[in-house]
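Thread: flavin mononucleotide complex, take 2
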Amino acid sequence: MILFIDACTRKNSRTRELAEALLLGVAKDESAIERVNLYELDLCVVDEDVIRKRDKALSLGDFSDSYYDVAKQFAKADMIIIASPYWDLSFPAVLKLYIENISVNGITFEYDENGVPHGFCRAEKLYYVTTAGGEIGKYNFGYDYVKTVSMGLYGVKDTTCIRAVGLDMATVDADKVLENAKKEIEKYGRKI
Ligand SMILES: Cc1cc2nc3c(=O)[nH]c(=O)nc-3n(C[C@H](O)[C@H](O)[C@H](O)COP(=O)(O)O)c2cc1C
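Output below.
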C-alpha cells in the first residue's frame, strides 16, 4: 500500500500536482493508494489528556481505540509520499500535528530498556514532495526534519526529496520548472 499524505490546502496546489505525477509512476493502480488529506482528518492537539491516554494504552497493550488508526495506517504502508508546500522555511503546521499523532510509542516505534527507539514502520521508501515560491537552498528544514524522524524514529529505510522552487518569482517560468520536475519524477518508476 502507498500512503499519500496530502498537506496541501490550495485547490490548485502545485505541490499536489507534482505528487500526483509521482503517484502515477509508482502506483500500479488507484487501488494501491490510500489518500489522507490532513486538513480533513480533524487531528487533535496532543495535550496532557492525550499523553495520559496513550501511556495507558501502552501499559495495557490495547491500541484498539480508533484514535490509533492514523498511526497504524502509517506503520503498515509499504511506501509513503508526503506532499507539503514550503511554508515559512518548513511545512504547514497541520503536518506537525499529524507527525505528533502518529508518533505513538508501541505502534510506529518502541523504546528499548535503554531508552533507544526502534522503528516499527514497514516502508522502505518515503518521498517528500515540496514546492517553494522562492529558493530553498540549504534551508530545507521541513524535509530534513521529516527525514530524521522517519528514519531515526519510525525505521523508514530511505527518503528522497523532490522539489520545485522559485515558482512565485517574476523571473521564473513556473510551468517550465514544474515540467522539468515531472521529467525528473519519471525516473522513480517502481510499481507497488
Ligand atoms: C503561508 C505561506 C508561507 C510561505 N512561506 C514561504 C517561504 O518561507 N519561502 C518560500 O520560498 N515560499 C513561501 N511560500 C510560497 C509557497 O512556498 C509557494 O507558493 C508554493 O509553491 C505553494 O505550494 P502550493 O502551490 O502547493 O500551494 C509561502 C506561502 C504561504 C501561503
